[in-house]
Every structure is written in structure tokens, then in C-alpha cells.
From TrEMBL:
HAMAP family: THF_DHG_CYH (MF_01576). Gene3D superfamilies: Leucine Dehydrogenase, chain A, domain 1, NAD(P)-binding Rossmann-like Domain. Keywords: Amino-acid biosynthesis, Histidine biosynthesis, Hydrolase, Methionine biosynthesis, Multifunctional enzyme, NADP, One-carbon metabolism, Oxidoreductase, Purine biosynthesis. InterPro entries: Aminoacid_DH-like_N_sf, NAD(P)-bd_dom_sf, THF_DH/CycHdrlase, THF_DH/CycHdrlase_cat_dom, THF_DH/CycHdrlase_CS, THF_DH/CycHdrlase_NAD-bd_dom. Residues 139-281 form the Tetrahydrofolate dehydrogenase/cyclohydrolase NAD(P)-binding domain. Homodimer. This is Bifunctional protein FolD. It catalyses: (6R)-5,10-methenyltetrahydrofolate + H2O = (6R)-10-formyltetrahydrofolate + H(+); (6R)-5,10-methylene-5,6,7,8-tetrahydrofolate + NADP(+) = (6R)-5,10-methenyltetrahydrofolate + NADPH. The lineage of its organism: Bacteria, Bacillati, Bacillota, Bacilli, Bacillales.
Length: 291
């Protein structure tokens, strides 16, 4: 069997074109959607992701501002920066690049971002709303996976989705979004005994465990859709996912590559969420004017 490769770069570009049109519309009404990106320290991967986020914003006419803080910034100084951004009229979305240095309380930082500007969808308010199926900003990576499935014509309802991984930013919300589309969801993780006995039941397998080439053919039911959320380096320092692509490709009906699969969708959905935030703010301002 040969599998269809889901091209996240292409699908992401298509979505970005429609987001760009919405940016143009906002600009006609005097609004430039603005994203503030807070980067703490010198983590090389984080620096690359942040640079890509800024470049992607600028490419579709959005405004982006980088707030670069030293590795030893205090918790209070970081919270002050976020409180300041919460008040700014020209900033519609705020994100704090993760991971943060160990001395910083990540949960407190995320909880300080105003829910109206939480375009990463990580704050307790956003997570609660997502769980309840209410209107909110969805976390960009799981949101991007849902878009990949939709654009690839993959039906989710009635399917058995198995998630490998239980992180707050990918695994947990991923299962929730699939559940909301009527999939039957099983969560597994690095400590699940006899993992293949679970993953082999998956019509849709989401690998988000953070281990290079961890998922092999023995984990896959023939014809399964395999979505690789991992971003790792192998023993030769080559970028790779959680799925051993060469081993699994023939068994899967559809598969995402790394790079070029889920990764580009994460930034695409960040653009979508930020434009949504600017649109909501405009509507709110109009409603207040008419009161
Ligand atoms: N505040 C956040 N922090 C982090 C998030 C997040 O969504 N919000 N996710 C990850 C990192 N990340 C975005 O921040 C991210 C990772 C990877 C990619 C991507 O496009 N990957 C490319 C390969 C890039 C490369 O060559 O290294 C791909 O897979 O094709 C985008 C965004 C953790 N932190």
C-alpha cells in the first residue's frame, strides 16, 4: 500500500491566503492586527520559531512586536511586561514562547495573559471554554491538525483516534477537539503498558510523545491515518518526528512528514487566531460606540 502524504506547507499557505484577505479588510477599517511575542532567554529553537512567527505575520501585512527578555528575568518583571501588553490597543494577540526558564512559574505567566488576547489558547479560561465547546482561541497545534484532517477530506466522526502523549499544549487538547467531532478517543502515553495493543486499534493515530522515531510499523493498523506532531533531532542531528516515517509510510493511508507536516500549521493557526482577536475587538468597539 502506498500512503498519501499530507502537505502541511501547502495547506497552510492556502489558509494563510484567506487570512491575508481578512487582514486587508481590517486595514480598510483602520485596524492592523498586532501580535506581541515574548521571548525569554537564548534557546536556539525558540529563537527560530519566534523569528518565523514574526516573518509570517509580516508576510500577510500584520504587525508583530518582539519583547526579548534575558534568561534571568524575574517572574515579576515578566508578569509586568504581560500586564502592559494586556492594556495596549495596538496588540490583539499575546504569546509567550515556551519553554520558559526553570525559575519561572509557567502557569502563572500564561494565566496573566488576558483571555481576549490569548491567541495560543493556553490560559485556564481558554482551556475551560474549549472543554465546554465554547467560542475561544484553540491551541494552535491541535487546531492545525484538525485543519489538516479537514483539508485532506478525512472524516473524523465515528473513527477511533488514539493519542500518544498527554501534554497540556498538544495531547490533551487534541483529544478534546477530536471528541467534539464525534471521534472515539483513547489517550496513551510513555508509561502505557503494551502501547502497540492500543495504537494498533487507531483509525487516526496522533503521535505527540516527544521521542525521535518512536512510532514504528508495529504500532500501526494498516490503512490508518498517521499524524506526527513530534519535532526532534535524531542521532545525526537531523530533524525528525515521533514517527519513523520510512518504516510506517507503506502501512498508513495518510501520513504527515516532519518537516512540512504539522509544524507549518502551528504558525498558520496563530495567524488565524490573531486575526480573529482583531476582528472581535473591532466588533466590540463598534457595539460599544452604538450603546
Ligand atoms: N507559546 C508557544 N510555545 C511553543 C509552541 C506554541 O504553539 N506556542 N509550540 C512549540 C514550538 N512552535 C511554536 O512555537 C513551533 C514548532 C515547529 C514549527 C515548524 O514549523 N516546524 C517545521 C520545522 C522547523 C525547523 O526546521 O526546525 C516543520 O515541522 O516543518 C512551528 C512552530 C513549542 N513552543
Amino acid at each position: 500500500m502506498s500512503s498519501a502524504i499530507i502537505n502541511g506547507k501547502e495547506i497552510g499557505q492556502e489558509i494563510r491566503k484567506s487570512v491575508e484577505k481578512r487582514v486587508e479588510k481590517l486595514k480598510e477599517q483602520g485596524i492592523i492586527p498586532g501580535l506581541a511575542v515574548v521571548l525569554v532567554g537564548e534557546n536556539p529553537a525558540s529563537k527560530t520559531y519566534v523569528a518565523n512567527k514574526q516573518k509570517s505575520c509580516e508576510a500577510i501585512g500584520m504587525f508583530s512586536e518582539l519583547i526579548k527578555l534575558p534568561e534571568d528575568v524575574t517572574q515579576e518583571a515578566l508578569l509586568d511586561q504581560i500586564r502592559g501588553l494586556n492594556e495596549r490597543e495596538d496588540i490583539h494577540g499575546i504569546l509567550v514562547q515556551l519553554p520558559l526558564p526553570k525559575h519561572i512559574d509557567e502557569e502563572a505567566v500564561i494565566a496573566t495573559i488576558s483571555p481576549e488576547k490569548d491567541v495560543d489558547g493556553f490560559s485556564p479560561v481558554s482551556v475551560g471554554k474549549m472543554m465546554l465547546g465554547q467560542d475561544t482561541y484553540l491551541p494552535c497545534t491541535p487546531f492545525g491538525v484538525m485543519k489538516l484532517l479537514e483539508h485532506s477530506g478525512i472524516e473524523v466522526a465515528g473513527k477511533h483516534a488514539v493519542i500518544v502523549g498527554r501534554s497540556h499544549i498538544v495531547g490533551k487538547p487534541m483529544g478534546q477537539l477530536l471528541l467534539q467531532k464525534d471521534a472515539t478517543v483513547t489517550y496513551t502515553h510513555s508509561k502505557t503498558p503494551d502501547l502497540p495493543s492500543f495504537t494498533k486499534q487507531a483509525d487516526i493515530l496522533i503521535a505527540a510523545v516527544g521521542r525521535a522515531n518512536f512510532i514504528t510499523k508495529e504500532h500501526i493498523k494498516p490503512g490508518a491515518v498517521v499524524i506526527d506532531v513530534g519535532i526532534n533531532r535524531d542521532e545525526n542531528n537531523k530533524l525528525c518526528g515521533d514517527v519513523d516515517f520510512a518504516d510506517v509510510a507503506d502501512a498508513a493511508s495518510h501520513i504527515t512528514p516532519v518537516p512540512g507536516g504539522v509544524g507549518p500549521m502551528t504558525i498558520t493557526m496563530l495567524l488565524e487566531n490573531t486575526v480573529q482577536a482583531a476582528e472581535k475587538k473591532l466588533e466590540q468597539d463598534k457595539a460599544e460606540k452604538n450603546m
